[in-house]
Design a protein that fits this description.
Layout: H1 3-6, E1 14-20, E2 29-34, E3 41-45, E4 51-53, H2 55-58, E5 66-72, E6 81-86, E7 94-99, E8 105-107, E9 122-128, E10 137-142, E11 147-150, E12 158-165, E13 177-182, E14 185-190, E15 205-210, E16 214-221, E17 227-234, E18 237-242, E19 249-250, E20 254-256, E21 259-266, E22 274-283, E23 290-291, E24 295-301, E25 306-312, E26 318-322, E27 335-343, E28 347-354
Parallel strand pairs: 12-18
Antiparallel strand pairs: 1-2, 2-3, 3-4, 5-6, 6-7, 7-8, 9-10, 10-11, 12-15, 13-14, 13-16, 16-17, 18-19, 20-21, 21-22, 22-23, 22-26, 24-25, 24-27, 27-28
Amino acid sequence: DVTSQAGVSWNGGTSGITAGDYDNDGFIDLYLGNTSSPGCKLFHNNGNGTFSDVTSSAGVTGYTDTRTAAFVDYNNDGLLDIFVSNHDFYNYSNQMYRNNGNGTFTDVGAQLHLSGQWMGDYFGTAWGDFNNDGAIDLFAVGHIDKYVLFRNNNCPGNYLNVRLIGTVSNYNGIGALIKLWTGSICLTRSIIAGEGMHDFHSLPVEFGLGNNTFIDSLIVNWPSGIVQRFDSILVNQFITIVEGATAIFHKNTIQSKNGCLSVMVYPNPFTTKTVIKFQILCVGEKTNVYNLIPGTLNIYDVSGKLVKQFVIHDLRLTNVTWDGMDKENNILSNGVYFCTVTTSAVKRTIKLLLIR
């Protein structure tokens, strides 16, 4: 027991604990939703096995009847905010403490319509992107307004949604630590199975990236000890990382029993050219080595006529640039086209829109 040595002693009542790196220093901090005076506690991780109580200076003392609490980046600015729900559903309800990026927080709960009379007293919350728009939403359960789904309309920043699938570690990657570098910023997030009072949030990790438009690198530290690194990742997409795999699967990955095919197109719609990026992979029966399968990339018009074809040979990660020309290098007219990537194991079709 290193509680006292670590500086996180607390002799009062606590109804929910949440953990997250709110200041992006690479160390996981703690926030306690308390039911005793003087209120909640924010413990900053000093990175040397000790914590400092910064509750007062951060402005997140809250109240003494907290039900649950959660670190969440509601506005995708790359800084973890703190959501708190209290038993008093009439006077002060819930708080959404927006992270100001300087060690302090500002309560914007009422401004975001997450706080008000006759709402709150939530015993359990689940934060997750239910409509896949890149903004993290809230499903809350409580005494007063029962079951409530709050859609997030206040999320201007870029994002990356990362799902982990364990092969050596547990399937959901619980306990894994993910670090993401974008410019001079490093974001650290962990996969947690349950926190707060009765909270269970979406297992995919939602990284808020603010105005950053490119991810330099992403490192996954699995519970098994396996470490994976991926470089040069585009923002505003949903990806899946399989433990031990050498490539990333994207949201539009199609899987069959023989293999996986991931296709991404950017920009789409396009005016002069678009890049079709794809990974053609399969898993060997006796190994976790991802082997390549040759195939073709065909472009069809709306009538089903083949207008362009690219042959895929032995390429681990392929980028094909299509300039809107047909196979005779004639300029094609505006409209809808279909890109089909085909291998012996699996096939994927994506709609393209050419607007000159």
